[in-house]
Structure formats: C-alpha cells, structure tokens
Specification:
Layout lengths: L1 H24 L8 H8 L4 E3 L14 H10 L2 E8 L5 E3 L6 H4 L10 H4 L14 H9 L8 E5 L6 H13 L5 E5 L2 H10 L5 E5 L12 H8 L4 H4 L3 E5 L6 H9 L4 E6 L2 H9 L3 E4 L12
Parallel strand pairs: 1-2, 1-9, 2-4, 4-5, 5-6, 6-7, 7-8, 8-9
Antiparallel strand pairs: 2-3
Helix pairs in contact: 3-6
C-alpha cells in the first residue's frame, strides 16, 4: 500500500510539474488576426542581417546587404539600437570594435558620431532604421517582411520599443518584432497587442560569449519568461532547438518556431519540414515558392 501511495504521489507530482511547465512557456492564445499575419510572414525566407558577406562590399546590416536581400525576394532579420540622442540605428553589437574597428558603445554615441564610422573596412556606414525600411518599401514587386530584433541596453526597453513602433507605423513594410529581452515583449503585450512578437533564446550555458548570468540563463533558456512575454513565436538557436522548453512551447503548445542561424540547405529544409522558419546565412536558398 505504501509503495502505491508513493508511486501515486510521484505521478501526481510529475503531472503537476508538467502542467506548471506548460503554463509558464505557453505562447499567446486567441488574438484575432495574429494567425493570419503569421501565415503571411512564414511565406518568406529571411536573410540574417541582410544578404551579406563581411568579405565583400555588402557586409552585415548594411544598406547594400538589405538591397541585395530585397532584390532577391528575401525578408531580412536586422538589429535595432537606440543612440544617445534617441535615434534608431541598425547594427548587431552594442560594442563597435568588431564591426567598425573602434572602441565605443552605440547607445553612448550620437547618430552623427556613428555616421562617421564604416562597417568591416568597406564604404558602407551604419544605417538608420528608417533607411532600411525605405529600402524594402521602395523595391520592386511585393514587399517581403522584416524580422526586427530590438537590442536593449540597460533599462531602455520601453523607450527603444516605443520609438521602433513609431518608425514602423510610418512605413508600409510588413514585419514582426523579436527580442532576447522579455521586457520588450511585455511592453508590446500591453501596448501593441496587434504586433506579432517573438521571444529570442538559446542554451546560454553553451554560449561561450554569453554575458547572461547562470541563473538568468537557465530561466531564459528554458523559456520560463514566456509567462510574462506570451510570445507568438519562439526564435531559438538552431543548434539548441531540441531543448525541452522549445519542444513544449512549439510542438505541444503550438508556437511557431524560428531558428537562427541556419547555415546549410539541409538545416533550412529540416526546420521548414516542421512548418518553421529559418533565418539563413552563407548561402542562397531562393525564395519560397508561392502555394498553388
């Protein structure tokens, strides 16, 4: 009898843990129009930081790279920061050493200061967010969407998100918004619920360059901040996508999966085979063919 009671209590505890885990990582449910917007977004492939090659005159997050992506019919993933004078610029790192070869932090510099810099030894400068939107808005044919990653710095999440939304409102470009910072998604949840939003994450313990603390990395990597963010999709490191939190949120609870950075046609085929979206780099897969 005692063994049965222990087994029953164990099973009940496991079931309770499973229910709690699902409640924590669950995506948003029931918002009218989000599913239709996601279907449109998932009809495209997305070039990571534009169709770039840092060894060419079209380096990452440059206008040249975004023009190439637009010309080939790809959407683009891009990284948006807020400068010291409240301007929006597109560059991956806050620290400028890797991309521009100088010391400095994007958020501590003005737009004028940043515009004097060049990317990866090319003639390409750091573009403003508006310039990138104009590239996509002004191209020929239907406008592919953008995956807009908001890169927070300190506590500027609300200011950055509000400014980015105002800029997007002023242009006719389809988009979704994603961020590693769940506070961005929380802001969108409460202020712009009609926007398709995604939670970026990975297994931070395997990322040697991660600046995230061990505790936060465990929580964030397990998607437990979804309880506050309630994302519409999960954007996860392709190499780590089989983690339990991702499988619960995407396979069991139905959140669309976006993986980054996909570097081979085989990896892209793998994620697309299960209805996911791959953000690709280093090869040209061709645009997705329209259904029908």
């Amino acid at each position: 009898m005692k063994k049965r009671q222990i087994l029953g209590a164990t099973m009940l505890g496991a079931a309770g843990f499973g229910v709690l885990a699902c409640a924590l990582v669950a995506p948003r449910r029931g918002h009218e129009g989000i599913s239709a917007r996601w279907r449109e977004l998932s009809r495209f492939r997305y070039a990571h930081r534009g169709l770039h090659d840092n060894r060419t005159p079209a380096p990452e997050n440059s206008l040249a790279a975004f023009r190439l992506a637009r010309e080939w019919g790809y959407g683009s993933e891009l990284d948006v920061h807020l400068t010291a004078d409240d301007q929006l610029v597109v560059i991956h790192d806050s620290k400028l050493r890797r991309a521009c070869g100088v010391e400095g932090v994007v958020e501590e510099m003005t737009l004028a200061q940043l515009q004097d810099l060049r990317l990866f030894g090319t003639r390409q400068g750091i573009p403003t967010f508006e310039q990138v939107l104009e590239v996509y808005e002004g191209g020929a044919g239907p406008c592919p969407p953008l995956v807009v990653e908001l890169k927070t710095h300190g506590n500027n999440y609300a200011q950055l998100t509000e400014a980015a939304m105002a800029m997007l409102d002023a242009h006719q470009v389809p988009y979704c918004v994603e961020s590693f910072d769940p506070r961005v998604l929380w802001w969108l949840r409460h202020n712009r619920p009609e926007v398709v939003r995604g939670q970026l994450s990975e297994n931070f313990l395997l990322d040697k360059d991660s600046q995230v603390s061990a505790v936060r990395g465990l929580l964030h990597g397990a998607l437990l901040f979804n309880v506050f963010a309630r994302p519409d999709f999960v954007a996860y490191n392709h190499l780590h996508k089989d983690r339990l939190g991702v499988r619960l949120a995407c396979e069991l609870l139905g959140a669309p999966l976006v993986t980054w950075t996909v570097k081979t046609p085989e990896q892209l085929a793998e994620v697309e085979a299960v209805g996911g979206v791959g953000i690709f780099e280093g090869f040209e897969p061709g645009p997705l063919k329209a259904e029908g």
